[in-house]
Amino acid sequence: MHERSPLKLSQARPRALLRLLPVLLLLGCGPVVDPDGERLFLSGDERGAMEAFRRRLEEPSRREALDRNLLGTAALCGGDLATARRELIDAGRIMGSFPAPQRMAMVGSEGSKLYLGDPYEGVMNALYTAYACLAEGDEGNARAALKSGILTDSDSGKDEYRSDVAGLFLLEAWLALRNGQSDLARQDLEKVQELLPDCPLADPDRLREANTLLLIDVGEGPRKVRRGRHGEAVGFTIPEPPARELALTIGDRAIRPALGVDVGFQARTRGGRAMDRVLAGKATVKEIGAEIGVLLIEDARVGRADAEDAEEEERWDRQAIVGGGLILVASMIRPEADTRHWHLLPGATWLWIGKIPEGLHHLHLEFRDGEGQVLPALEQRWHHLPFTEGGLNTLYLRAGPRRGFGHAPAPEMETAP
């Protein structure tokens, strides 16, 4: 007879796992993300990127909000404000329609759930939506988007991290003054002054006279990555920004934008944190469940060999079946954190609200590194930009490591050599 030793997880030999290897490989396969849209966007082909993202939306999926945000970003950068407004609003409705946390996907991957985005992505959706709506003359939806973004920011963290996106408060204060809501404007400007003590834009008199909104995106946004033995934790890699400072002139006037959103900071202090502990629990269940299953099967194999009758053999067979079931369930538990993210976001968004005299003006935008040296590859010169005295002028500029681009009413853009 075989001698039987006490059960120890460390002694379990994974022979049974080999029999289930095809199943494990099949269950472990994840979706392949089509990189065409991102590649086209980074190469400067916003129209091509828009078509790639539209193709994704033709098939129903659990990532509709993400694809609409991506399409909206490409449209915003390409000057298609109507598409940007529509897609960003639709994405925001999906992201904001489930205020309660989703249940954990215990069997299957977290990435199989409906994509609702992290709080920092909700903030950027609100900011972009507000800009696109204002550029299209839709002030009501702009105000609603800003309110939604502030609530998203407020509900997403501990007290020390509540409502710290200065750009949302500054825009809301401006629109409140335009709408005669002086109390709301005062509260918002107090928050801006708390977050940006030296910000010259937080002046109600200047905001009342303002006729121009300028948005400038700089650098590459955070990338969501998996961490932990089973990829159960979420982390972010923050690309080093090529530009530390920017210098802007419109006509002969030097403009000082304010840092509206530090996207990397928002991601690190909010994104994904609420689910880390739960996903770690999934990883533990997966690991222990598989080891116990292998141990039960191995124990049953040895026990069956020593069985004295058919009844005892049947008992060991049942134990082996239970062990196999545990292995199968463990193989279906995928604790990998959801790494879907809005990968076209910038590293930071700067904004300026102020008054520009009516007429055609030149715009010069320089980016500088940490030592104050100008980065010629990112420099932008715009000529004959039309500004109106009574209307609302909007201008969006974006600079990345490979190019600068933007749109404005009937612009003629010249990129510095």
Q: Could you report the average pLDDT, rounded to the nearest whole number? A: 77
Q: What is the 3D shape?
A: elongated
Please identify, by name, the CATH architecture of the largest domain: Alpha Horseshoe
- Give the H and E element order: HHHHHHHHHHHEEEEEEHHHEEEEEE
Tell me the count of domains: 2
What's the total count of β strands? Answer: 12
Helix content: 40-55%
Residue share in β-strands: 15-25%
Which structural category do the helix and sheet elements fall into?
alpha+beta
In the sheet with the most strands, the strands line up as 6-7-1-10-11
Query: What is the CATH C-level name of the largest domain?
Result: Mainly Alpha
SSE blueprint and pairings:
Layout: H1 15-19, H2 21-28, H3 36-42, H4 46-57, H5 64-78, H6 81-95, H7 119-135, H8 139-154, H9 166-178, H10 182-195, H11 204-209, E1 212-218, E2 223-227, E3 233-237, E4 245-250, E5 253-255, E6 258-262, H12 263-269, H13 276-305, H14 310-332, E7 348-354, E8 359-368, E9 380-387, E10 393-399, E11 404-407, E12 412-415
Parallel strand pairs: 1-10
Antiparallel strand pairs: 1-7, 2-3, 4-5, 4-8, 6-7, 8-9, 9-12, 10-11
Helix pairs in contact: 3-4, 4-5, 5-6, 6-7, 7-8, 8-9, 9-10, 13-14
Give a structural overview.
By secondary structure, the chain is an alpha+beta fold. It has two domains: about 10-30 and about 280-330, no CATH class; about 35-270 and about 340-415, Serine Threonine Protein Phosphatase 5, Tetratricopeptide repeat (Alpha Horseshoe), CATH 1.25.40. About 45% of the residues lie in helices and about 15% in strands. It has 14 helices and twelve strands. The chain has helices at about 15-20, 20-30, 35-40, 45-55, 65-80, 80-95, 120-135, 140-155, 165-180, 180-195, 205-210, 265-270, 275-305, 310-330, and strands at about 210-220, 225, 235, 245-250, 255, 260, 350-355, 360-370, 380-385, 395-400, 405, 410-415. The strands form three sheets. Strands 6-7-1-10-11 form a five-stranded mixed beta sheet. It has a five-stranded antiparallel beta sheet with strand order 5-4-8-9-12, with no helix packed on it. Strands 2-3 form a two-stranded antiparallel sheet. Helix 8 runs antiparallel to helix 9 (about 165-180). The N and C termini lie far apart (about 85 Å). The relative contact order is 0.15. Residues about 1-35, about 95-110, about 155-160, about 270-280 and about 400-415 have low confidence and may be disordered.
